[in-house]
């Protein structure tokens, strides 16, 4: 039986653990102890209580164990490398990793340094935590899995099948870099603005914000072009990006975006993984990005007060 280690017992980590554990050996790994008795609330509002195997990195590293078939890294983007470093001595360097982060920070770095296969997953599943023993699966979505160098198609296919069997609908793809950047574009257009102004996604449609969304998308679209990222839905340039952003704003109108939740909880945001690669790319390509830089500076100032 394939075994899955899930490093980072947060919303996505616990959703994966609840889903995979009936079908495969599954271990949830954190940096602090958590209750084994964990509750999942489904999108339909049903509650499932399960005893999951939950270990700390320290405990796992100090005990003999079988090597896992996959290590899923489900921390926030800025914590992924440090989390892997702590676990690395407990797994063979050939172990396949699966990176679930938004943005494009951890993926290229870990892909460059890890010896074994590095798969990336981009998901529209929605989940949030309710304390140390609960996770709410807020909305079902779809997950795409692939690797940045397109060398592990079979492994991605096997994983996609295992996830789908476990109820996390997934597809293996050969264009995961495109998909990660497309999601990053949407996150860059929505997350910083709603986080800075404390509003739900739908409020971006209002007079006070709509022009700012358009200004962000203009810069993002020029970066996507320079990075050779295809506009969504077979569309053309800026218009296609803007249409996608408005579509996501509409379908998530009532959401408090993840970055807003982080700001409200006084946690560091994923701005480095979302705005960081855009700013770095714009500088490399000599593109003007006053709007994106302004948002990044404003968010940095907010984070500095935490
Ligand atoms: N939630 C969602 O709906 C979605 C999330 N994503 C992406 O998935 C990723 C994870 O998000 P999410 O699950 O919401 O985040 P959470 O903040 O809920 O979970 C992150 C987890 O990582 C743990 N962690 C942090 N550092 C370490 C470490 N060094 N070792 C082990 N564990 C560590 C945290 O533990 P501790 O409690 O100790 O801090 C926490 O349990 C993010 O990149 C996010 O953008 C993508 C799509 C949807
Ligand atoms: C698409 C969006 C903005 C939905 O809220 C999201 O992915 C997030 O909150 O991080």
UniProtKB/TrEMBL annotation:
<dbReference type="InterPro" id="IPR050838">
    <property type="entry name" value="Ketopantoate_reductase"/>
</dbReference>
<dbReference type="InterPro" id="IPR036291">
    <property type="entry name" value="NAD(P)-bd_dom_sf"/>
</dbReference>
<dbReference type="InterPro" id="IPR013752">
    <property type="entry name" value="KPA_reductase"/>
</dbReference>
<keyword id="KW-0566">Pantothenate biosynthesis</keyword>
<feature type="domain" description="Ketopantoate reductase C-terminal">
    <location>
        <begin position="175"/>
        <end position="295"/>
    </location>
</feature>
<comment type="function">
    <text>Catalyzes the NADPH-dependent reduction of ketopantoate into pantoic acid.</text>
</comment>
<comment type="pathway">
    <text>Cofactor biosynthesis; (R)-pantothenate biosynthesis; (R)-pantoate from 3-methyl-2-oxobutanoate: step 2/2.</text>
</comment>
<dbReference type="GO" id="GO:0008677">
    <property type="term" value="F:2-dehydropantoate 2-reductase activity"/>
</dbReference>
<dbReference type="InterPro" id="IPR013328">
    <property type="entry name" value="6PGD_dom2"/>
</dbReference>
<dbReference type="Pfam" id="PF08546">
    <property type="entry name" value="ApbA_C"/>
</dbReference>
<dbReference type="InterPro" id="IPR008927">
    <property type="entry name" value="6-PGluconate_DH-like_C_sf"/>
</dbReference>
<keyword id="KW-0560">Oxidoreductase</keyword>
<dbReference type="InterPro" id="IPR013332">
    <property type="entry name" value="KPR_N"/>
</dbReference>
<protein>
    <recommendedName>
        <fullName>2-dehydropantoate 2-reductase</fullName>
        <ecNumber>1.1.1.169</ecNumber>
    </recommendedName>
</protein>
<dbReference type="InterPro" id="IPR003710">
    <property type="entry name" value="ApbA"/>
</dbReference>
<keyword id="KW-0521">NADP</keyword>
<dbReference type="Pfam" id="PF02558">
    <property type="entry name" value="ApbA"/>
</dbReference>
<comment type="similarity">
    <text>Belongs to the ketopantoate reductase family.</text>
</comment>
<feature type="domain" description="Ketopantoate reductase N-terminal">
    <location>
        <begin position="6"/>
        <end position="149"/>
    </location>
</feature>
């Amino acid at each position: 039986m394939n075994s899955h280690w899930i490093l980072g017992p947060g919303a996505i980590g616990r959703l994966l653990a609840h889903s995979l554990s009936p079908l495969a050996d599954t271990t949830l790994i954190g940096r602090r102890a958590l209750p084994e008795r964990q509750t999942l609330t489904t999108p339909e509002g049903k509650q499932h209580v399960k005893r999951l195997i939950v270990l700390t990195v320290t405990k796992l590293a100090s005990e003999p164990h079988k090597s896992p078939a996959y290590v899923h890294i489900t921390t926030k983007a800025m914590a992924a490398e440090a989390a892997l470093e702590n676990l690395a001595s407990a797994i063979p360097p050939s172990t396949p990793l699966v990176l679930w982060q938004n943005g494009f920070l951890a993926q290229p770095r870990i892909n460059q340094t890890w010896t074994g296969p590095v798969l990336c997953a981009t998901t529209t599943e929605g989940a949030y935590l309710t304390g140390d023993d609960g996770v709410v699966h807020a909305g079902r979505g779809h997950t795409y899995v692939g690797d940045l160098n397109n060398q592990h198609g079979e492994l991605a296919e096997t994983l996609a099948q295992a996830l789908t069997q476990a109820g996390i609908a997934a597809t293996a793809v050969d264009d995961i870099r495109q998909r990660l950047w497309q999601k990053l574009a949407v996150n860059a257009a929505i997350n910083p603005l709603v986080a800075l102004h404390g509003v739900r996604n739908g409020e971006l449609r209002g007079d006070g914000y709509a022009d700012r969304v358009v200004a962000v998308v203009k810069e993002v679209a020029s970066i996507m072009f320079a990075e050779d990222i295809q506009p969504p839905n077979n569309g053309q340039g800026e218009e296609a990006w803007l249409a996608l952003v408005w579509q996501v704003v509409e379908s998530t109108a009532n959401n408090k975006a993840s970055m807003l939740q982080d700001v409200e909880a006084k946690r560091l945001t994923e701005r480095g993984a979302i705005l960081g690669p855009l700013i770095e790319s714009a500088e490399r390509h000599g593109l003007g990005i006053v709007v994106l830089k302004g948002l990044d500076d404003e968010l940095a100032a907010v984070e500095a007060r935490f």
